[in-house]
Amino acid sequence: MARTPSTRPPATGPRTGKAPAAGAAAPASPGQAEPQANPNPWGPAAQEEGDGRILVGRSFLGRSEAAKAGTSAKDEYLTLRLANRHGLVTGATGTGKTVTLQVLAEGFSRAGVPVFAADIKGDLSGVAALGEAKDFLVERAQEVGLTYTPDSFPVIFWDLFGEQGHPIRATVSEMGPLLLARLMGLNDTQEGVLNIVFRLADEQGLPILDLKDLRAMLAEVAQTASTLTTKYGNVSAQSVGAIQRQLLVLENQGADKFFGEPALNIADLMRVDRTGYGTISVLAADKLMGAPRLYACFLLWLLSELFERLPEVGDPDKPKLVFFFDEAHLLFDEAPKALLDKVEQVVRLIRSKGVGVYFVSQNPLDIPESVLAQLGNRVQHALRAFTPRDQKAVKAAAETFRPNPDLDTAQVIMELGKGEALVSMLEGNGVPSMVERTLIRPPSGRIGPLSAEERAAILARSPVGHIYDAPIDRESAFEMLQKRIEEKAAPQEAAASDGGGFLGGVLDSVLGTGPAAGRAPSGPARGGGRPSTRMTTTEVVVNQVARTVATGLGRAILRGILGSIRR
Fold first, then answer.
1. DSSP letter at 145?
2. Smallest Cα–Cα separation from 175: which of 300, 31, 339, 41?
3. Of 81, 211, 232, 56, residue with least CA distance to 145
4. Contact partners, residue 496, CB within 8 Å, separation at least 6
5. Distance between CA atoms of 470 and 262, rounded to whole angstroms?
6. DSSP symbols for 463-507
7. Residue 294: CA atoms inside 13 Å, Cβ hemisphere, count?
8. 76: three-class secondary structure by DSSP
9. What DSSP designation does 130 have?
10. What pLDDT shows up at residue 28?
């Protein structure tokens, strides 16, 4: 894959272009002996980039205070070749989940693995800025055997609404009828109608790119339902109306901004910068907190696109891409069972494509059991057991770990401090390690959000801004159907204005406006009486045809002139 220019600050250090480590010795002046190399074996270069592992933290058999004494220490790693076996980060609010997410994202980036992370609260954006050697970070680094080294990482910001990042779009055609039907919770009959819409659009060369195209096609199918029945099956107005209502729900959540062009190219999520760092794609997802259907729609489409486009790779030395989905309960809350089944299927199968999926949530019970069973690498921060549900969550979380005879797992979960976690990672042949109480290492990037000015500066020099920032509205189903109506209406209008042709003759004979109007009947009235007012059979047929044609002509003209009503 071609590498793109780095978005990080200019080089300032000897190895990775970063600021010197906190507490590092100053360069020797002329005549002085060169300082000894740092003997610390736990530095990032040794432990994260050279041996295929990411240092997560250091575990201690006792409480966290044991870290200061350095007793019974064991370093906890995430093995890169097992990172596509997926993972889970859980814990109560304020226990350090987002910092753990940042630590893992930074580790993957250093290893050259691109990362995609949904950032619900905005805290993750600081990974793009150089970290600061604050006292508590330096102290935590020392506790886990590190020399704190500030770092920054290449970041591309995305936003489904296009406000805090580059817009992410997909076409309706790319989404397909099956995914749309599952996202909208349609029944079998309504899903069948949606399939007819897509089939008809494909056969007639009508691209469905955005929601106005889909609405136009639904209206077209409803109007021509009688002609479609023998070929495709029944299409009822009630089914079309139900689909339109569900589209309105998605539209109210902002789906009109998501569906369109230019559509996202998956390759732009899999960039590596010129220094070998994987790009971290951060999705500004604060507004998605109130749009669970749109969030689910985006997630499912993105994972499905990766599954369809990426080749089978088995278990590579490191993943091709890693996804972190913060506040994962938004994906599963009130989601239809069909959607949950689809997520389980994708999570289970996408591993062989070299993609790792990591869910971040407050409670392990937020994740369905069928999905939870697929997540091999786990970090459990503190849980508070104030309610029966909380107590159930603590018990469930403890039982999912491989037991450690030196730990009462359920009790420790409630005692963990901020920045501490129970960690169990896959090792060896994919077997979970025994659960360990672990101090999480500090991140190298900034902890906390970027300012609006800093975010704007990164967006301004982004390598993909020129591709996605400006929307494209090319001719598609909506415009083509409008043109078709206008072309049909034009000759009918001309014929009506000339008063000639077959239509003119029919209307003249019925309305009495032709040349023969006013002439007396050619033959005498039957019986010498008053002329009969009854129409012959031929006149009845001609009259009915004329009314039908005139009504259709009026509708065609109305639609041709006021076509925007169908928008």
1. T
2. 300
3. 56
4. 503, 504, 553
5. 8
6. TTHHHHSS-B--S-HHHHHHHHHHHHHHHHHHHHHHT-HHHHHHH
7. 26
8. strand
9. B
10. 38
What length does the chain have? 567
pLDDT of residue 508: 56
Residue with the larger pLDDT of the pair 219 and 13: 219
Side chain identity, residue 90: T
3-state secondary structure (DSSP) of residue 91: coil
Q: Which residue has the tokens 């159930």?
A: 392
CA distance 158 to 153: 16
pLDDT at residue 513 tops 90: no
The pair of structure tokens assigned to 526 is: 């039957």
| Element containing residue 118 per DSSP (H, E) | strand 115-119
- Decide: pTM greater than 0.85: no
β-strand pairing of 321-325 with 73-79: unpaired
* pLDDT tops 90 at residue 484: no
Output the DSSP codes for 160-228: TTSSSSEE--B-HHHHHHHHHHHHHT--HHHHHHHHHHHHHHHHTT----SHHHHHHHHHHHHHTHHHH
What pLDDT is stored for residue 61 in this prediction? 64
The phi-psi region of residue 175 (left if phi > 0; otherwise alpha if psi is between -120 and 50; otherwise beta) is: alpha
Q: In sequence order, what are the residues at sequence separation of 6 or more whose Cβ sits closer than 8 angstroms to the Cβ of residue 265? A: 467
CA–CA gap between residue 336 and residue 293 (Å, rounded): 10
